[in-house]
């Protein structure tokens, strides 16, 4: 074929390749020489395999080293703009073809089957090629009155690298289109055997876009088969690595900025979304001092900026999955875990938290980790059961290792018959339910204030605090520091009362001023509240309640601690009951309260007195003096109520709690009966219950000569190697839930996180933001996030 014809054949493919090249750099003459040498190297290798019937051994080390710097097959390296057609033809490397046997005849293969075939079959088809042996004569046939046969240059691999001759049908196929194209066309599904117009038909076929795409895919496929990391075309373009580094660096910055916004509670869209939102503004600001990031922000293609809402949501979800994955790995390593859950008031979201014992470097610690939100239409017991168990299965946590459940005591979750805890325990008996201890403490306080005078006084105190805090104009005008009253807290029961007692005179003076306010509703409320505060009954009840509820504050704070252990919580509750009993018997306790109440009353001009019989509410005990009256009718009943409610609701009597007698400080109190109960309760969880009695004797002997250990987690380190049964019992005991504050605490970030996404945002993306916000101390690996995204695509 003439040089002009050759140029005509390959010109369309050349133009297609040039449109795919980067516009930043063009190939230089030295690179062209290198490509030519590399093509010759591959061609030499191909000729050495000319008479082999099997594909080349691409898995060996030597071919990989030889081809590491070689150019790719045809279609992989376009010519430089200054190259001639002849030089371009010289740069087309061979594909390392081997001579095809009769069994490898391309005519016996259907194109669609070859396209779906394994890569090894495709590789063999691309590398197999019929090479006429010496003395071979092509068959001829009569066409249009002349005897014609296949043109000899069709066998020239440098001119037609993708044509394959089939002896069985006496025709040629385009193997690239058979493997990587589609459609019922000549040269793909039908052999070209019209030798009169063969060159014209082949030229038109090589000029089609479908053939050009098939050649590109063939080149990439052969590069991968020969063990190259990427195509020679990509390696020849100097801008490829620069663009790849720029995009990778920019994407890492995007992921890091998403994590920072989530941790700091910064809405990524904000109220300036028409100007790109907060996220875009922060990214641009950061790029001002970073040249590489600036190039990414300014030069990234419009379809690959990775800063759209959809991409942000995908990256948020992947960041959340990364954090959750680290938590789940620790939880699986711990084996046993407890489940804590709490739902919002409208049952729209359920917060899921796991509690487990984490081991690191021989030390043990109790962890409560948030795993995400679950969306639900309702919160019935049956719905919660399926929701929680299905989610555990999705996360790869075995419910058979579930040893505890912790909810707030609502009927749908903690009901004894139809609640989620009862339904789950039917399937998994080891999942013992523990009513949230802090919620039980709040119930104990609420029940303790059912004494009429105390209940009325506390309700009035809440109304006063809410009324003063409702408007900035109601600041304590007579106070030197102009402070607001603290709102009453469900967790710190004495804080609101203490703030009111300390600023009692200023609060009353403010209410008196507001009695003359022009707003009728405000004036009426201020007058009513001021009248109540001028009553000695209110003052003495306020002081007594504040002093007694102070004893519950340390217990409340300890129960909300994620590291709190069930034995410690139970012991602390018993200590509170014991101290309240001592305060009741100690006359100096009430004497101090009485003196405080009298001083507070004198500061506002109120005299100690007892209510008139007609005004008394409920039964009362007669007394000779106001001091004795309020002692008998407020102090003694209230302290009895608080101690009783805490003992009944907070001090646990769970069979599983008996394992605390295995701890060194209580081991001398362990009886045979308690030990039998422990083995009965924990028998299914012990690795070898038959050896438990021997372990107990050795454990007692060890603690008899060693100092007592105060930290329960240290006991796990002492028992890990030689006392496996005791180790398992103590580990399960520490895994038992104490308080559901961990799940409740996650809802505090929910209103803020809703600003990121719409109200109909999927749970996974909302959970991703919540995971980054709650676990703000856990870093996000941007490279791992990008790798996970590329795999998902």
Features:
single chain, elongated, alpha/beta, two-stranded parallel ribbon, five-stranded mixed β-sheet, 793 residues, disordered N terminus, 53% helix, 35 helices
Topology:
Blueprint: H1 3-20, H2 29-48, H3 61-67, H4 85-90, E1 98-99, H5 111-115, H6 119-127, E2 128-129, E3 141-143, E4 146-148, E5 163-166, E6 171-174, H7 175-180, H8 198-206, H9 209-225, H10 232-236, H11 238-264, H12 277-287, H13 291-299, H14 309-334, E7 337-343, E8 349-360, E9 363-375, H15 381-394, E10 402-407, H16 411-414, H17 420-427, E11 432-435, H18 437-448, H19 452-469, H20 495-502, H21 504-514, H22 520-533, H23 536-549, H24 553-559, H25 566-585, H26 587-603, H27 626-649, H28 672-682, H29 692-705, H30 712-719, H31 724-735, H32 741-746, H33 750-753, H34 763-774, H35 782-792
Parallel strand pairs: 1-2, 7-10, 10-11
Antiparallel strand pairs: 3-4, 5-6, 7-8, 8-9
Walkthrough of the structure:
- 53% of the residues lie in helices and 8% in strands.
- It has 793 residues and is an alpha/beta fold.
- The protein is elongated.
- The relative contact order is 0.08.
- Helix 11 (238-264) packs across helix 35 (782-792) and helix 30 packs antiparallel against helix 31.
- The strands form 4 sheets. Strands 9-8-7-10-11 form a 5-stranded mixed sheet.
